[in-house]
Amino acid sequence: MDRTEYEDQPQALAQVVAWHRSFYGHTKKDSMETWLSPQISDQFLAFPGYSVLRQDREGRRGGGVAILCRSEIEAQRMSMPAGGALETLWASVSWRGGRPTTVGVVYRPPDSPEASSLEHLQEQLRAARCLGRPVFLLGDINLNVLDAASPRICRYNSLLSELGLVQLVNQPTHLHPVPTALDHVLTDQRDPVPEVEVLPVAISDHQPVIVTARLGRVRRPPEWRTARPWRRCDWDAVCLEFLGADWSAVDGATDVNVCVREFMTIWNSVFDRLCPARRVRVSRPDCPWLADDPALRALMSERDAARDTWICLRSPESKADYLRLRNSVKSQLIKARRDFFCDELASGDRRDFWTRFRRISATRRPRPAAAADAPEQAAAWADELNRHFATVGSRIADELRQVATEGRHAQRPPTVCSTSFQLQPATLPELCERDGEAEVTGQWQ
């Protein structure tokens, strides 16, 4: 059953009504059922905000079970093995694409054979357990579980134990003429155990039973991206590799496409070796307020189209149109984000809200250093930078000199920021002399 104080928690509670009680005042002793027939349409059932799943009794009056489910919770009817005289209805329930939960309702008429009904119940529970989802079964089985010493209850408890299920109702749900617990709640969830409450106010000769249980969390598949870790790249080694690479294929290319292809071959070979691409898992989720607002996504598409038009035309009118749409998108984004977090805070679990807020909205910042260590760390970092820039020129010069002595073809870097090199303009006779020596020895200096 459902009540008003749980209306504000649709995401934290499984607000599914297992309805096998009397309907519109129809009450029959020891037989609490919907009393609906196939001739009665769902449109005559006044339950605003709920969807209805029914399993009516056929052939005779009475009986029937139904599930009333909140509109924002997805519920799909499931097929189970035939139950004989047992009246059951099963549904797969999930909230916003989260992990599905199997929910069933059951009614066993008091005049039905007990042994066969329990066999059919066992078959359906076994089929529900085989799906690997949380299972909840609620209903009137007409067995008094408070009489634990009875042989029939011992067989019933043994059946539940074999299937890994527990029965949660331990208070009387049928008070007259003798207090008995005929309405059961069966589940395989033990951590945490769902809360069960038997309300003191009766709507028939059975007491209403409220079950509070969490629906499965939304588990999106992980998103992966392939990227190069540029921050960890050794740029000195990259420059050295480019300086020592053989660029003859690029210089000798006569077609621009061949030139680009040869250049990218050298480029990719260097970075594949020194900065290989890695498959990275995206830890921060996308903006959920965009997924539920098609109007905002359409406005963003209009903004992108207006930007493309402005880039092509470069007219004052196209620029004004683009700026207007851009400002409109900004304001709508702020409003959608604010509404999303307000709804999450008002209707969700506040313990989970701040975790989601930090994951989605909070900016990651590096941990600040301690006050006592800050001056020393700043000085050490400054010294490291000074040592790097003071030695980079001489280090590259030594490496280039070593490459030249080994006989490999190496190009001189176009720009060198160091006092180790002094650039002087060369005269024409000097260039001719160097060119002649290179032709004789086959080496460039």
TrEMBL record:
Pfam families: Exo_endo_phos (PF03372). Residues 33-206 form the Endonuclease/exonuclease/phosphatase domain. Transmembrane segments: none annotated. InterPro entries: Endo/exonu/phosph_ase_sf, Endo/exonuclease/phosphatase. Coiled coil: none annotated. SUPFAM superfamilies: DNase I-like. GO terms for molecular function: catalytic activity. This is Endonuclease/exonuclease/phosphatase domain-containing protein.
